[in-house]
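From the thread on structure requests for the teaching lab: each student submitted one protein with a one-line request. Submission from student K.M.:

"Model Polysaccharide deacetylase family protein from Heliorestis convoluta, C-alpha cells only."
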Amino acid sequence: MALLILFFYGLSVYSAYFIYHDAAARENSATLETLKTSSIYQEEATVPKVIEELDNNHANIVEQRKEESQELKSKQEEIETIVGKQSQKIAYLTFDDGPSDITPRVLDILKHYQIPATFFVIGRQVENHVETTKRIVAEGHALGNHTYSHQYRQIYSSVEAFMQDLQKAENLLDKIVQQRPSIIRAPGGTQGNFSPALVKRLLESGYIIHDWNIDARDTSAPLVSAAYIEKQVLEQAKNKDSIIVLFHDGPGKVTLPQALPAIIEGLIQEGYTFQIIDDTTKPVVLMRY
Ligand SMILES: [Zn+2]
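Reply posted by the TA:
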C-alpha cells in the first residue's frame, strides 16, 4: 500500500513538472506569436520586402516608359512616312539609245531595287535586241519612241522626214510588243533640233514630247567614269521635287550599270520614289516655242 501511495505521489510530482513545463513552453510560443504579430516585428520583416517591391515597380515603370516612348517614336515615324509620301519627290529614270548589250544589266539593277523606269528606244536597236525589248515591257517599264534611225541629218531634214522615221519605229514596237508609245524623245533633245513646225505637227498627232531636267552627261565623252555620272545626277537632283533623269544605255556605255546602284540609293536617301513616264506625266521641254 505504502508502495502504491509512493507511486502515485511520484506520478503526480512528475505530471506537475510536465504540466508546468508545457505551460511555460506554450507561454513562450504565445509571446513569440504576439511579437510576430506586433507591428514592429512585422515592419522590420516587411521593410526589405517593400524595398524589393519598390525596386521591381520602379524597374517596371522604367520598362513601361521605355516601351511607351518606343511606341511614340514608331508612331512619329509612321506619320513622317505618310507625310513624306503626300509631299512626294518623284524620280523618272530614263534611258536613251538602247536597247543594247548594256540594257540587260540595267534591267537587272532596276529589278534588284524594284524600280520602274522609262526606255526611249531606237528602232534599229530594237531590231537587234528583240528579247531585251520584250523584257523591258514584261518587267513593267515604259517604252518611249526615240525614232528609228537616230540619224540627225536625216530625221531633222524636214517635218515629214521626222514623222516617217518616228512612225517606222512605232510600227516596229507595235509588231514586237503591241505598243504604240505616245511619249517620244528627240534625238539630241528638242533644243536646237526641233522646229516649231515639227512640235506643232507632233502635238497635233497626239505625241507627248519629253526632254529632261537632269542630264547624267554620260555622252559628254565617248565614255565617262561611273563616279562622274553619279556626281552629275546627285548634285543636279538637289532641291528638286520632280526629276526626269537622262541616261544612255546605248552600246558600250559600260559605266552606266556601274554608276546606277549608287545613284538609286542616293535618290532613295533623298526621299525620291520612282515612276514610269506615262501619258499623264507632266513633260519637261527645254526648247522655247
Ligand atoms: Zn539619243
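TA comment: Residues 46 and 52 are 10 Å apart (CA to CA). The first helix runs from residue 2 to 37.
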